[in-house]
Fold these 2 entries.
Entry 1:
Amino acid sequence: MVENYFNNLDVIIIATIKDVAKLANVSVSAVSKAFNSYNEISEPTKERIFAAAKELEYIPNKSAVDLSRGKRPYLGLIVNDLNSNAVCDEYIFRLLSGTHERANELGQEIIIFTAPQIKKLNKSYVDFCKHHTLVGAIVHGLDADDPYLTALLESPIPCVLIDIQKTGDSTAFVTTNNFEASKEVVDLFVLKGHKSICHIAGGATSFVTEERKNGFLQAAESHNIASENIFVIQGDFREETAYLNTKELLKAKKDITAIFAASDIMALGASRAINELGFKIGKDIALVGFDGFKAMEYTSPPIATVFQDFHAMGRIAVDTLLKIYRNQDFNPRNYVPHAIFHRGSV
C-alpha cells in the first residue's frame, strides 16, 4: 500500500508544470526557469507564467524537485496549532526537539505544519501530504472527530499518531499509558488517606480524555471509594474553565480533599480556585496535574504531576514512520514510560 502511494504521486497535483506551460504558451523549461529566477526569462514572460500558475492554483513542488534530484523525501509533523503561550507549548517544544533530533541523526529532514495552515489552503491532510511528497506524517493534537484525520488514517499514507490510539496497515501510535498513569494517581491519593476525590477532565473530543477519566474512575472503584465521594468535572484543557468549575464544586462540596487534573494547565486553574477559597494546597487539598511542565516546579507549593516524555515520543515516532515507509516490521502500539513527580501539593 505504501509503495502504491509513492508510485502514484503524479496524479495528485491538481495542476502540473505542463499545464502552466500550455496556458502561458511557453515551454516547460521556461516555467521552471521563471520559478527559479533565471535572468534569461523576460519580465513579460514571467508575468504571463505567474498569471497562468495563479489561475491554475499551481504551487511549485520543491520536495518533488528534490526527489527527482536524488534527495530524500521529507518527514511531516502536523500539530494542531502553535501559539505564544509558553506554558501550553512546552510539550510541543519537547515533541519538536525529539523529532528533529532523531531525524537529524538519521540524515532525514522534517517539516512542521499546523492543521489551520493546511485547512486554509482548502486541502485535506491526504492531498497535502501527497502534494509535498512526504514520507508520511507524525500527527499530534487533532480532535478525534476531525474528518480530515479520518481520511488520512484510511489512506495508505504512513502515519504515526501521538496520543491518538489508532492503528492500521500504515498507521501506528506513540503515547503514555494514560489509563495506568491515572490509576497510579488515585493509588497515591488512597495511600495518603483521601476518601473524597475529584477528576478534572479534558476536552470531550480528545483521545486521552477518556483514558485518563476511565483510569481515575476504575481505580476509585477498586479502592471502594463511595460513589458519592467521586466527582468528575469538565476543564476542557483550559485554565479558566478548570478554575471556574473547581471553584463552583468546592463551594458546594467542601469535603473534597484531593483533585487530579488531566493536564498541568488545568491544575494551575484548580490551584487558583483552591487558594481563593482559603484552602491550603498540600494540606487541605492534594493536587496532581498531568504532562510534567517545568512551571509546576515553581508554584507554591510545587504541584505534583504525571511526567510525559514527549521528547522520547518524538524520537520513537520518527523511527516508526520510517519503518512503515520502508515496509519494515513496526510496532503499531508504542507506550513511553511515565513517572509521577511527587511534590508539596500531595
Entry 2:
Amino acid sequence: MDIGLLVLRLAVGLTMAAHGGQKLFGWFGGYGLAGTGGFMESLGFRPGRVQAALAGGAELGGGLLLALGLLTPVGAALVIAVMVVAIVSVHLSKGFFVSNGGFEYNLIIIAAASALAFTGPGAYSLDAVEWVQLSGWLPGVLATLAGLVLGAGALLARRPAPVARQS
C-alpha cells in the first residue's frame, strides 16, 4: 500500500508542481506571470499577475507538499482549491471530457488529492519520518472542505472586465 501511495503522490504532486512552475516562472513551456496574468485577467481575476502568482504558488507549493508527503492535507487543500477554480472558470462550460476542453482531468486531480488527505501519505513520506499522523476522516474532510471553500472564495472575488467607453 505504501508504494502505491508514493506513486500517486509523486504523479499528482509533481504534475501540479510543474503546472505551478509554468505559471510562476515560464518553465516547461508555460507563460510565466505576465502571460498567465493576462489570461487570469480575461477570466475576471484581478489583478491578473497577483492572481497568477497565487494560483501558481498553490500549485507549486501544494504539489510539492503532496509529492514529499509533508502536511499532506494542506497540500491537498491547495490543489483542490486551484482545480475547483479551473473547473468553474474554464472547463465546466466545455463538458466532461478533456478531449473537448472539459473538466475530467481536474476532477481526477481533486479526487486524488482528497483521497491522499483521507489515507495519508504512507510510510515513504516526510510526515512518516517526523512521526506526524495527519490522515483519516477528519483531516480528509477538513482538507476537502478547505479546498472547496478556498476555491469558491477565489471565484467569488472575480470581477468582470470594465466595459470600454465609446466617445
